[in-house]
Structure prediction request, 113 residues.
Amino acid sequence: MIPAWQIYFTIAWSCKTPLVFLLDKKYETITKTLMRQFYNWMPSLNYIPEKRDCDNFGFIYKGIADWTTNAVGLVIGRTSGWHLWNMALTKQGVEQIEPQNGKIVTKNKRYRA
Prediction:
């Protein structure tokens, strides 16, 4: 388990923002394999603009992950417009996952909070 203060600095540096809100005192790490498994457990849902979109997919992904680990969080930022996606703590650092397609991104400029 990693103390929250250490996680705060890891996420703040990786996402280039001081706006990081942590709700637990200690966190664990997960693997990319487990991140992919969480995506595979998501129900097959069709995208519906403004109804079943990025925030809904992101909350579902986090909900599934929460049954196993506290290493998955939410990121809200701008890509071409406002967007919500997930991030996870791995031993390699902070990974970001697009919950609508399962793509895992490492330090991609497009996915920055």
User: Anything to note?
Assistant: The helical segments are 4-15, 32-41, 54-66. The chain has a mean pLDDT of 90. The chain has three helices and six strands.
